[in-house]
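Consortium newsletter contribution from the modelling node. Members have asked for a concrete example of what our holo predictions look like. Here is one, prepared for the pyridoxal-5'-phosphate complex that several groups have been discussing at recent meetings.
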Amino acid sequence: MAKMIKKNYLLAPGPTPVPVDVLLEGAKDTIHHRTPQFKKIFEDAVNGTKEVFRTRNDLFILASSGTGAMEMAVANIVNPGEKLIVCSVGKFGERWVELAKTFGAEIVLVERDYGDFYTPEMVERALDENPDAVAVLTTLSETSTGTVMDIEGISKVVKKAGKLIAVDGISGLVAERLLTDDWGLDIVVSGSQKGFMLPPGLAFISFSKEAIEKSKNVSSTSFYFNLKKYLKDPIPWTPAVNLIYQQSLAVKMLLEEGMENVWARHELMGKATREAIKAMGLELFSKRPGNVLTSVKVPEGVDGGKIVSIMRDEYGVTIAGGQGSMKGNIFRIAHLGYMSDYDVIIALTSLEKVLRRLGFKVEYGTGARVAMEIFEKEGA
Ligand SMILES: *Cc1c(COP(=O)(O)O)cnc(C)c1O
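And here is the predicted structure:
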């Protein structure tokens, strides 16, 4: 009996796989950051990232994880006692709530259950009832449930009310179409280890003129993330030099692929995964599933924790379980960043293997066949 070697496949919604060329780029000599040589690389990284964001707004690269950019957003637009409309349908919406609390904002919550989504109408109602609110905090893709929000529609009602909108695009950006300038988004944040095909360690944040105007009247209580310092010098502290080499290359790769194709690729991977999951007799968890990841209900009688741990520890395939109250109830398969059709097939076939082992009846190839037929039909 032959035993397989274990190869590692990272199919979780962050960190995501990093292309070898990008890994190697990080191995280049670390240079001093106050040099014309580094300045050029930094500007390339900023300009490329702006194109991915579809913005001409100021964009800053932070040496932090994505949450640092969320903190910078809140810290610079709200004074203690001012009102924020915070939208939440999962763990990352709750992070906005915690941040708003941390900076002393009065919070108006637009909240729905995990798996559900909020709509432009719900946000409009909150705006009507709270004309003194200064901004609305939203999430493009709620990673804990795999749910995507209609940010374009929500932004329309926020702009009509003359307020600021901030979007957590940490997992959503790259995988989902997002047009910062065309949609009038005041603050957009993202992070390196999700769609950008980079290792963890960087966050990105863009500010519109209106957001910058508002920040001037905010006595920011953050030192590291104080926007005024970044406006004076976009590199206020030592940047993550080698990660920025990598970022410069990764955004170049995305732009060479073309954002329209990047979005279409994710859409197709998302569609193939969802259809395959349904064909396997499983149920989707999200009411508005997106193309970042697919969240799946753990079938009756199966131990959800075991699905994830056996796949990872024995098969080498890392997907994600549920977070918080979702633990054991759902699992999440990412199709995000440096992934392609065969990554989807690996996730589906290893899922079939573990489900069979845990007593769930599914024929080998059920999901893979449906996914391959969809890829073929779409010419992938
Ligand atoms: C991953 C993620 C975060 C947190 O990012 P960190 O890099 O872990 O700080 C926040 N929001 C969303 C939607 C995410 O997917």
